Structures are given as structure tokens and as C-alpha cells.
Amino acid sequence: MSSTSEVGHAKNVANLQKLTEQVSVYTLYNPPVASLSVANLQTLYTTAVAKLSEVEEKRNANKNAIALRQVAFENLKPTCTRILSLLEILGLPQGTIDQARTLNRTIQGGQKKPKATTEEGGEPPKTISISRQSYTQQAENFGILLQLLATIPVYTPNEEDLKLTNLTTYKDSLVSTTQPVDQTEAELNVKLTERDQILYAEETGLYTIAQNVKKYVKTIYGATSPEFETVSAIKFTVVKS
User: Fold this and answer.
1) Which of 3, 163, 189, 240 has the greatest number of CB atoms lying within 10 Å of its CB?
2) Cα–Cα distances in Å, from 116 out to 14, 105, 172?
């Protein structure tokens, strides 16, 4: 479903066409300003339609990249939990287990529980926030966990998906699905800026030109004329993205 702002941008463009069609039948419409001519209004409409299409193309590419990343990361947290469970039965030093638990907790996005309890009338003990929820950071921490596994000779799981080589391949897939999200978002931002320039730039934007068309109709036909009343009813708004 399109957002309210996107509907607003499209409505402005559609109303420009409506305004252009209306003034094109006014016999007295002959503006002294080139940007208000029917030919230039038609060109502006064509340009605006094309830019809205480009925005949607980039938006869809970004949405698709986000969806692929979401699928890739679905198994990350369960996989880390399984790795930790396996480490806990291998008879490893407590320090190694603690490192793995900290990395797992960071990836899971939790908080380290405070060791002290709150005394009556005192301040609650501070927790150490280790929530790192960005996808890039999750992949980085997973890579650190794999580095830890590589130092543990007894980490030789029978489960194929928990073997270090397969975990490394999985980590690489996480990284590869994150990069397209950043790239498509950057490309989308460029198109959004270009769209806003076409629609809302001072003096040259669609919104300003539409208002000036109405003013010119008011000039030639008068404020109480049916011609001006008709174009006044065609609404344009400055839409915040």
C-alpha cells in the first residue's frame, strides 16, 4: 500500500495534467512567462510522471533487498543459540564459555543481567547494554563468534550446518545481503531528492508553477470569473516526504 505522502505527490502530478487541460481551452490564456505555457506545462507533467516512476522503481528495489536480507538473517539467532548449547557440553574453560555467551547475547539483542540486587531505598543496579541490533553489527559479531570457534580444537560438530566451513559460508551470505540494502537505499534517496526538486523547488517546482497558472487565470478573467473558480478548485499541496 502506498504511503500518504506518495499518494500526495502523485495527486499533485495528476492535478497538473487536469490544470493543463483546463487552461488549454481558455482562449485568452497566453502567459508572458514561458514556464506557464501549455507546452511547458505538458513537458513538466511528462517529466514529473517519469520521476515518480523512477522513485517507485528504486523503492521496490530497496524493498526487495530488505526482504532478501530478512530471509537471510532469520536463522542467525537460532543458530547462535545452538552453537552456544553445543559449546556448553564440550568441557571448555569457563572463560571461553563466557566469551561465547557475551557474543550470543549481543547478537540476540539482550542485556547483561546485573549481579547485584537493589537495596531498599537505593538505586537499581546498572545493566550493561549490549544490544546491537543493526544487521551489519549482527553479521560482524557473528564473524567474531566464528573466530572464537576456530580457536577451539574440540569444536567438531556432526551437524552439517554447524560446521565451521558452513557457518563461514552463512556469514558471508549475511554480509552479501546487507550491502544491496545500503546501495538501493542510497539510490532511492537520490531519486527522492530529484523528485522533490521537480515538484517543490522554489520558483521552478510544479507546486509554484501551478499557483502561478492560477494567478494568471485570475489576471485575465478576474477573481469572480467561472474560469478562475474552476482552476482554483484544482488543489496542490506541498507534501513532506
Assistant:
1) 163
2) 64, 19, 40
Q: Is the pLDDT of residue 131 over 60?
A: no
Q: So what's the pLDDT on residue 130? A: 38
3-class DSSP assignment, residue 13:
helix
**Residues with Cβ < 8 Å from 28, sequence gap 6 or more?**
220, 221
Q: What is the pLDDT of residues 47-100, one digit of tens each?
A: 999 999 999 999 999 999 999 999 999 999 999 999 999 999 999 999 999 999
Task: Tell me how far apart the alpha carbons of residues 159 and 35 are, in angstroms, rounded to a whole number.
Answer: 69
- C-alpha span between 12 and 236 (Å, rounded): 5
Residue type, 236: F
DSSP string covering 92-157: --HHHHHHHHHHHHHHHT-EEPPSSPPPTTSPPPPPEE----SHHHHHHHHHHHHHHHHT-TT---
Cα 61 from Cα 197, distance rounded (Å): 22
Q: Alpha carbon of 122 to those of 12, 114, 119, 138, 184: distances in Å?
A: 59, 15, 5, 35, 50
Instruction: Give the model confidence (pLDDT) of 168-203 as tens digits.
Output: 999 999 999 999 999 999 999 999 999 999 999 999
